[in-house]
Amino acid sequence: MSSVDRLEQNPAQTFVDEHFAPMSGVAIAAGPVADHTAELDPEESALVANSAEQRRHQFATGRYLARQAMQALGMAPAAIGRSDARAPAWPDCVGSISHTSTLAAAVTARGHGIRGVGIDLECLGRITQAMHARLYTDAERDRYAEDEPHWPCLLFSAKECAYKAVNPICGTYIGFQEVEIDVDWKRHRFAARYIGAHAPNALMNHGDGHFGFFADHVISFLVVRRPTR
Ligand SMILES: CC(C)(COP(=O)(O)OP(=O)(O)OC[C@H]1O[C@@H](n2cnc3c(N)ncnc32)[C@H](O)[C@@H]1OP(=O)(O)O)[C@@H](O)C(=O)NCCC(=O)NCCS
What we know:
CATH superfamily of the largest domain: 4'-phosphopantetheinyl transferase domain
Oligomer: single chain
Radius of gyration: 17 Å
Strand content: 25-35%
Shape: globular
Largest sheet: 5 strands, antiparallel
Order of helices and strands: HHEHHEEEEEHHHEEEE
Bound molecules: coenzyme A
Distance between the termini: 42 Å
Helix content: 25-40%
Structural class: alpha+beta
CATH architecture of the largest domain: Alpha-Beta Complex
Number of helices: 7
C-alpha cells in the first residue's frame, strides 16, 4: 500500500505522519483495532489461542502495525514473539506496541545509537483523582496541578513508555514513584527522569519523548539512545 493510500484510509496514521517529525531509524504505525488474526504468524497465534476475542484483535492489530513499522524501516516482515516479561521479542530491531479498545500503535527503531523505544496509547479521562497519589510524585502533583487538563493522562502514558523502553533492557519492575516526567507542552515533547534506586534504569534519562492528542487518546513514545560522553 502506498503512503498516500495509508493517509486516505487511516486517520490515525495521518495524524502520526503529520504530527511527529520524521526521525532517522524510527517508524511508527497506528490504526484502528480490527480483526487481523488471519495475518498472524502461527507462533504468534499460539500466544493468544486461549484469549478472548477482543484481546486477540488487539494483539493481532499490534503485530500487524508492528510489521508495517518494520517494513517502513526497510526490514522484511517477520514473526514477533514474546519474552518471559511479556514484551514483544523483536527480530533485528527494537520496538514497542500499545492498544486500547479502539486504537493501536507500534514503533520500531534501529541504528542511530538507539537502545530502546516505548509507545503508549491512553484514553483521555481514564485517570481519576483517587489514582493520583499512586501514579505521580508529590513534586509532579504540585507542579502540574494548575496545568493543562490532560496532564494526568499524559504523565501516566509517558511513564508507561519509559517502562516499555527500559524494562526489556534492565529487566526490573519500575514503580510510578520512581520516575518523574518533564513536559514541554509547546513542542509536544517530554523527558523521563529516573529517581529510583536501581541505577541502570537511569538509561531512560537519555530519551526523547514525543506526544500528541488524537481521537480522545493521548499517544506518546520515547526513543532512548546510547549515552554520549
Ligand atoms: C506492561 C505495561 C506497561 C503495558 O501497558 P498497558 O497500558 O497495560 O497496555 P498497552 O496496550 O499500552 O501495552 C500492552 C503491550 O505492552 C507490551 N509489553 C508488555 N510487557 C512489556 C514489558 N515488560 N516491556 C515492554 N513492553 C511490554 C506488549 O507488547 C503488550 O501488547 P501485546 O501483549 O499485545 O504484545 C503495563 O501493564 C505495566 O505493567 N505497567 C507497570 C509498570 C509501569 O508502567 N511503570 C511506570 C513507571 S516507569
